[in-house]
Amino acid sequence: MTIGILNGPNLNLLGTREPHIYGSGSLDDLIDELHLHFKEIEMLHLQSNHEGVLIDTLQKWDSETDGIILNPAAYTHTSIALADTVAAIETPVVEVHLSDVESREPFRKISYIRPHCAHVIFGKGFRGYHEAVRWLFERKVKNT
After folding, report:
1. Catalytic-role residue among 35, 77, 97, 119
2. Of 22, 75, 112, 129, which one is the catalytic site residue?
């Protein structure tokens, strides 16, 4: 099984950017944790601050992965192009957010991506990514 982990803008600043909201671990810490806990699953990962790179990666991973974990970050609330891409691909996408977007600023409650995702997890920090991997794995096992 192969899972793609795609992170959007500013997630390269994890660990230093507002740690009271996003935690003190870095993006490298998160990826290392996932590799350690899910050794049987191949994981691709990419972080980009550029919308087009995220779109190109979703399209590419559609044929290369069994599931995609997407944290679109601020693009969640602004990118119809990303939403259109998630709607267009067949690979199941899990939208993940480190913080509880429902309890933050009103604009963060809007997700153009969510209606096209197979599952959504938010407010669980790094554990949300672990939960997303398990969800995709269990879904794959059930469908095999």
Report:
1. 97
2. 22
2-142 sits in which CATH class? alpha beta
The pLDDT score that the predictor gives to residue 32 is 96
Residue 20's pLDDT is what? 72
Mean pLDDT of the residues in the chain: 92
Domains of the chain by residue range: 2-142
Length of the chain: 144
Q: Which residues of the chain have pLDDT under 50?
A: none
pLDDT, residue 144, reads: 61
Rounded Cα gap, residues 39 and 36, in angstroms: 6
Active site residue 97: yes
CB atoms within 10 A of CB 69: 27
Whole-number Cα distances in Å, 34 to 4, 16, 47, 96, 99: 12, 20, 15, 14, 18
Decide if 22 is catalytic: yes
